[in-house]
Amino acid sequence: MRRLIILGLLANGVYAGEVKVAVASNFVAPLNALAADFKAASGHSLQISNGATGKLFAQISNGAPFEVLLAADDETPTQLVEQQLAAKDTQFTYATGRLVLWSAAGNTPNEQTLKQSQFSKLAIANPKVAPYGRAAMEVFAAQGLSAALSPKLVYGENIAQTQQFVASGNAQYGLIAASLVMFDGKFKSGKGWLVPAQLHQPIKQDAVLLKAGQNNAAATAFLQYLKSPAAKKIMVQYGYQ
């Protein structure tokens, strides 16, 4: 497969280049793995910047020279296309994320943990800018827990900071992206409960070619690579569907 990708790139006259990628915080670890595989296959390298999807949107709107956006939702890339800041017909869902209730230490959380609320602080990403934070709020609403849990919430600027709140002990639990703490179906650290997907809207994560990358053949090649079986295999290892 890798050899076929290389031959395809050479046949189209694509040479080693660099792609400026803006990525949602939940996808940093898999993107690092994907970047290494993509470079080995094509010679192209990625320059990675990460943050909450809403903040990346603001940076792009203000002229940040990113060439590809890997968002944590599907609405943000759509907005960028509508505002002519991204190339039409390049948007696609590269992954569907999973939410996990995670604890760095102590008892293993389960479906009763939120209902019993025997904790003082629960960390979630800021729902105003982070899709995983919005998904967490949907979980609370689905279980009728919004009012009861509201006083206990602490908000991370992005999903990575949310995990740090829990890892540092500033919150006993956090609703975070499974990719931050799981690999090959097992927890790398701490303990957790994989939240049933039916408790929130699907976390569809879309990619799009930004205006600044329209003339960068390496950016187009990277988006094509994300659709490959090799890329999908890596994403599945980090808990994405």
TrEMBL record:
The keyword Coiled coil does not apply. Keywords: Metal-binding, Molybdenum, Signal. Coiled coil: none annotated. One of its GO terms (biological process) is molybdate ion transport. It comes from the Bacteria. InterPro entries: AvModA-like_subst-bd, ModA, ModA/WtpA. Molybdate binds at residues 53, 159. GO terms for molecular function: metal ion binding; molybdate ion binding; tungstate binding. It holds the Pfam family SBP_bac_11. The complex is composed of two ATP-binding proteins (ModC), two transmembrane proteins (ModB) and a solute-binding protein (ModA). NCBIfam families: modA (TIGR01256). Belongs to the bacterial solute-binding protein ModA family. This is Molybdate ABC transporter substrate-binding protein.
